[in-house]
Amino acid sequence: MNFVKGLGYILSIAIVLVGAQSFVTHDSHPSKTDKILNAESISWYGISDLDELKSSKPIIVDIYTEWCGWCKKMDQNTFGDATMIKYLNENFTMVKLDAEHKEPIYFNGETYEYRKAAKRGVNELAVKLLNGKLSYPSLVVLNTDLQTVKVMKGFKDAASLKSELQSLSL
Question: CA–CA distance from 47 to each of 28, 50, 67, 97, 120 (Å)?
Fold first, then answer.
């Protein structure tokens, strides 16, 4: 019986370690050099690539925070939907912005800094893109001239997001 308990203990530790490994290796701040090229996922750019990004397609900036449950749900459900993955990869350049990004961000000739506010801070670029009305998750659609076309706040399921995007005149 002690052997079975010992084996159970070892298996429990192994499961925890495998789970921790997958959590630790998740990169929520991809950059141009580690852009996801997998057809089963969205090809994301990191926010640090935005200023140098020369895209012939409109850009969607996904503004999120690490602690936002709805952001994670949107990543899993909406951005994990096979139809949405194909649609977004074909029609948009996708960029992630952690609203609490601490490093300066250079965009359109301006530098946006992190500033401490209340319990948490915020990067000024998130404030600018969201017109000072912070809400997570939020998607900001930019045209190829990097001008804001639309701000979409809150969780969107795949069908709703696709419908909203298709209604835009880009």
Answer: 11, 5, 18, 5, 19
